[in-house]
Amino acid sequence: MGIVLGIESSCDETAAALVDSERRVIAQRIASQDDAHRPYGGVVPEIAARAHAERVTPLVQATLTDAGMTLADVDAIAATAGPGLIGGVMVGLVSAKALAMASGKPLIAINHLEGHALSPRLADSALQFPYLLLLVSGGHCQILLVEGVGRYKRLGTTIDDALGEAFDKTAKILGLGFPGGPAVERLAREGDARKVSLPRPLLGSSEPHFSFAGLKSAVLRAKEALDRAGASTSSAGAVTDSNSNPAQAEPVEAGLASAPSAPPYSHADIAASFQLAAIDCVIDRTRKALSASIKPTALVVAGGVAANQAVRGALEALAAEFGLPFVAPPLALCTDNAAMIAWAGIERLGQSDPLDFAARPRWPLDPDAAPVRGAGVKA
Ligand code: KG4
Ligand code: ZN
Hints:
This protein has two domains: 3-124 and 332-378, Nucleotidyltransferase, domain 5 (2-Layer Sandwich); 135-147 and 150-240 and 248-327, Nucleotidyltransferase, domain 5, CATH 3.30.420.40. Strand 4 (76-82), helix 3 (86-103) and strand 5 (107-111) form a beta-alpha-beta unit. The chain has helices at residues 34-37, 45-67, 86-103, 112-123, 163-173, 180-188, 213-233, 267-292, 309-321, 331-334, 339-347; strands at 3-8, 13-20, 25-32, 76-82, 107-111, 131-136, 141-148, 151-157, 196-197, 252-253, 299-302, 326-327. It has 379 residues and is of the alpha/beta class. The protein contains eleven helices and twelve strands. The model is unreliable at 234-250 (pLDDT under 50). Bound molecules: 5'-O-[(R)-(carboxyoxy)(hydroxy)phosphoryl]adenosine (KG4) and zinc ion. 5'-O-[(R)-(carboxyoxy)(hydroxy)phosphoryl]adenosine binds at residues 11, 137-139, 164-165, 167-168, 179-182, 185, 303-305, 307-308, 335-336.
């Protein structure tokens, strides 16, 4: 039996957790920085790094206290060492190094993406390698064949935005605040996904890569058309809500809605149409990967966007199409957390990394993956 202390600080959650090899999350604490970043509509790296520096030590202390443990009770200290916002990663990693040095316990430097990739095994003891993983978060959008601990074959990636980023940008365009994913999902429930015709980038293309930049731009054009129509008709009391235009059910090409008459769609219709377009892309690309890869044991989803019920539902249906079990970790394990980092430490127990291990802003899970044509720096 082993116990690992995990520390996560790669984006805007400062988190600590104690996990054992029996898959018990003994204690965990998460300090979200949403309030600090909200006024800026996105994560500000410098603010994030400072917040991690203030919070990480008391958070680790509180987590140990919750468990009634001290560092003497843990077998290793695992910390995210990349990829992510480098200031934040350095704070968590340096803290873990100090704790490792003071306690004499091994340091295990964890790839944040490996934390997400292995988290389904923390939740589901029956999940065996190899499984096909759709990793969809704010910073990452990849399809991976998880063959074992440290053995990842990247089948697909995004050539521009990550899926969570597309949700966040859509939320920003629609004025829904930050973080955007859950807000878009909520609003989409009230809308009609057939009302706004949006593009599905790379749909049907031969390799399972993603692109969301064009979809985001189309959402912006749809919103601008709505605003223009609203501005020119609001004094006449025109209503832009779709429910008031039941006769106009034909989808409207984004941005081509003719002002000054109000486009026959609402904000909720844009959110719903965006979400459906994004899901269509995800399903098409994942289907391509499932058809191309060796038969995996399961289709697994992880990362923050895995919290989206519509995304989950569509993936579950896809898994059934291929006769595969569908595994999605509980929501708290999908968004950034330290239990997944501690669990990756459990999976790697027995290894240790040097105290001069450098934080890595970029750290691909599959270093052998070929660069993707048209990919920007995020791939
Ligand atoms: O895994 P995560 O917490 O952080 C990263 O490693 O990026 O993922 C955060 C991302 C954000 O983009 C957030 O908007 C998105 O996950 N997200 C969602 C939902 N909940 C979180 N996207 C769509 N629907 C949701 N319910
Ligand atoms: Zn993450």
